[in-house]
Design a protein that fits this description.
3 domains; 3-stranded antiparallel β-sheet; 11 helices
């Protein structure tokens, strides 16, 4: 390019363009200051290739080499990793706290409090086995005790169903995010002008989708030289490869106790059960709460109802009642323990015969012996005897053991959530320091580019005046 006044005008014009572009990018940053996942951008200026003019080497001004994105892949990956840990800790703490609330000792309707009332009623009954009032009181407290078991079981089942339904919603969301990543892969490739000029806004959207996906399920992200992202999930199964995406669904299989999470292939034909492979993210916390803690406590409540009811019935069947039942034995006190279609904790209830006539409650060791309370005292011992955990724990101790375990697990979950929240906040702060938009800094940049624009216009104005001077010389 020849030197001269035209050269000066070219340098000034390009400088004006650079300043204008700087203001455009600054405005873009300011308008996206509150956009989730946005990374601030900046124009990277570089000098144009110089030219030789005689024995001199002259510069040709500057140009915008590229629009850079304030981005640190290491910090992005750290945030995704902490999203996974926090997602699991948060969902586990939330659901396990709900489970623990069913056994809160401050409540007056827990199984333990109703068991204590039932035991006290048994003592009154043993002291006065012939009194109708003590028999009625025993029936009422027994009904209250079984109702508390039924209610606790129903609450646990409802919690598990709620978790399964929430998992269904999260699977749909995860599938949408997976498809969004694949779609953005295509758009990034279509709009990418060169290796140094990718579409930053689309990359931010893709990173945001991956960040949201990491809150739900554990993922591993890989990026090739062309900027295409590959995503693997639990056990390394492909979620996104190029423009192809898998799908996460809930599968109801009658062979399983609860709905399972399955992954499809890219053709949406093959199903892979990944429920036991998910290690982090919100889904992992919900699965652990549902399948480990809630199911474990549910089985303990069933065991309590089944074994306590069986032991109590065994003693009760050996005794004799009052009135027309004073000469007969073999009656169960509780029903619903052996129904194959229902769980004991759901079905346990006082027998219909005793509901209709409290004289059917056994108290005597021998037939037709008014005042005999041998069996009544044996019933008290049935409550207090160690019949659980290989004969080492009574009914109340067994209940206290699994409730204590649940309380300890809840405290651990709360502690882990607190730790995960702190670590996640630190990672997000570090990322924000690199990628976030500072309005003060952008305001300073705007003033800088405004001054540059004014200075560039002075170059053109000066060159124009020089042109006029030369033209005037011809006159």
């Amino acid at each position: 390019m020849p030197t001269g006044l035209q050269h000066i005008l070219n340098i000034g014009g390009e400088s004006l363009g650079n300043s204008r572009m700087g203001i455009e990018i600054t405005g873009h940053n300011i308008s996206n200051a509150q956009t989730p996942g946005y990374s601030r951008q900046r124009p990277d200026m570089e000098a144009n290739h110089p030219i030789a003019h005689g024995h001199l080497i002259l510069g040709q001004g500057a140009k915008v080499g590229r629009v850079a994105r304030a981005h640190d892949e290491f910090l992005i990956e750290a945030v995704r990793r902490e999203n996974q840990n926090h997602g699991k800790a948060e969902s586990l703490e939330h659901n396990i706290s709900r489970l623990q609330s069913f056994f809160n000792p401050d409540l007056t309707a827990t199984v333990r409090s109703r068991l204590d009332l039932f035991t006290n009623a048994l003592r009154d009954f043993a002291n006065m086995p012939e009194e109708p009032a003590t028999r009625i009181n025993l029936l009422e407290t027994a009904n209250s005790f079984t109702a508390s078991i039924n209610s606790t079981h129903a609450n646990i089942v409802r919690l598990q169903d709620d978790i399964s339904e929430e998992l269904r919603t999260d699977c749909e969301m995860a599938s949408q995010l997976i498809n969004e990543v694949a779609t953005l892969n295509r758009q990034v490739i279509e709009l990418k002008t060169s290796d140094s000029m990718p579409p930053h806004d689309l990359e931010d959207k893709r990173d945001l989708a991956l960040s949201r996906l990491s809150q739900l399920i554990d993922i591993q992200v890989y990026r090739d030289s062309k900027g295409v992202t590959t995503v693997r999930g639990a056990d390394g199964h492909l979620l996104v490869e190029g423009f192809n995406s898998a799908e996460i669904r809930i599968d109801i299989n009658n062979k399983q106790k609860h709905p399972q999470i399955v992954l499809t292939d890219f053709e949406k034909k093959k199903l892979i059960n990944i429920s036991t492979s998910i290690r982090s993210g919100k889904m992992a916390g919900m699965l652990e709460a549902r399948d480990k803690y809630a199911q474990g406590i549910r089985e303990k409540v069933n065991e309590l109802a089944r074994d306590f009811g069986a032991k109590f019935n065994e003693v009760h069947r050996s005794g004799f009642g009052r009135g027309e039942f004073s000469a007969s034995s073999g009656r169960d006190f509780f029903e619903g323990l052996n129904d194959p279609d229902w769980e004991p904790a759901y079905q346990i209830r006082v027998s219909n015969l005793i509901q209709q006539d409290t004289d059917a409650i056994s108290s005597a060791m021998a037939p037709k012996t008014p005042g005999d309370n041998v069996i009544a005292n044996e019933l008290i011992r049935a409550v207090q005897d160690p019949i659980f955990i290989n004969g080492t724990s009574s009914t109340s101790e067994f209940y206290d053991n699994f409730v204590s375990f649940l309380g300890s697990a809840t405290m651990t979950a709360k502690s882990e959530l607190k730790t995960a929240s702190i670590v996640k906040a630190n990672a997000e702060t570090m990322k924000e320091q690199v990628s976030g938009v500072s309005l003060d800094e952008e305001a300073a940049n705007m003033l800088k580019y405004q001054h540059l624009f004014t200075a560039s216009s002075r170059i053109i104005q000066t060159a124009d005046e020089m042109f006029r001077t030369i033209l005037d010389l011809k006159r």
